[in-house]
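Fold sample X.
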Amino acid sequence: MIFADRMSHYHALLFPYRLTFSVKSRIPLRLFFPVLFFLLLLCSCATLYKTSLPPLSKQDVETVLSGIQEQESRVFSCFMNGKLTVKNWIWNSDFNILIVGTKEPYRIKIEVTHPWGQPIVHVLIDRTTLQVLSFQEERLYIGAFTSEALSEFFPGNFDADLIWSVLRGHPKLLEYQGAISLGSDQISLLDHKEDVVEIIDIGPDNHLPRQVSYPQQNITMVFSDVQESQGILYARKIKVKNTKEKGSLVIENKEIGFNRTFPWQIFFIEKLPLFETFYLDDRQRSMFNDQ
């Protein structure tokens, strides 16, 4: 009896208001579900109304974009050493990766190795020239640098700006003619045809870029674990997703450095003995033979 009395007491505290239905006041069954649906609709509309926020003001958009450009101007060279994880692309595994680059002149050296140290591929981009040393094929490929040519050897559809963004750990703004905001945490950059070339998602608190999408390249980059070194912001983890082919790669920085002078020998690939040289097409063969 004591237990039953306590339960009744607790029930009365938790549920102080009871809904009682008498035979005379009972709601007809044919009206019950329409009324319930109407109440649920009101609740959902109220929730959407409370959570939806207005887009960024023109001043806020300019502040975010100028902040990204200011960060870009702080770095003229960079190197990073870390881990590369590839899924649903050319490879599906973990590797070590070393990237060194300068902005002027534009030079990028990429070395991918197995975790135990065996080299897989070395990539050198020197302005408009692409060289790829494939250790598995024992070949040196030479040609003009394009995103399509690079995609034959390295996962993704990377042009010069996207490669620099991965190395830098911070997005780079593409050329644009206008900018609009359709939400409180998103900015879209438009070209002269008013087509979207870049979509920037920013954090709700700090307004720093956390995700950047490039619709024309079918590439989305996610920047996380943002750090600061001497006023330079960079992400220690960069995820690159191919929205068309569903592949992805993740680079986790173990070591990174900015604004250092690199010896010219770094930006050089030497063909090893017994390695064959292949040109990406006949036109490039004649072009490089004439140099």
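Fold sample Y, listed below.
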Amino acid sequence: MDQFRFLTDLAESLWQMQKSIDFWRPAVPFEALPGWLAPSVALAALLSLIVLSGIAVGSLAVLVASLLVAHLLLDQVLGIQLALN
């Protein structure tokens, strides 16, 4: 009886481990893709990462520019001085 309990606990822990490993696998089974397609998939992933990084840097530049315009409007037009002490 003790061995049966041990085996059921072992099977349950292996099942939980398999479920957690399956969570991190890609959604598309890349084993089903032909081998010659793997470099193009890697290149597409790299290009999408570069594009998304460019979008992030662009939005950061727009944020900095809008903060600069707001500061200049407050300082030059309205005469409100902002200073950090």
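Sample Y note: The chain has a mean pLDDT of 84.
Also: The CA atoms of residues 27 and 71 lie 47 Å apart.
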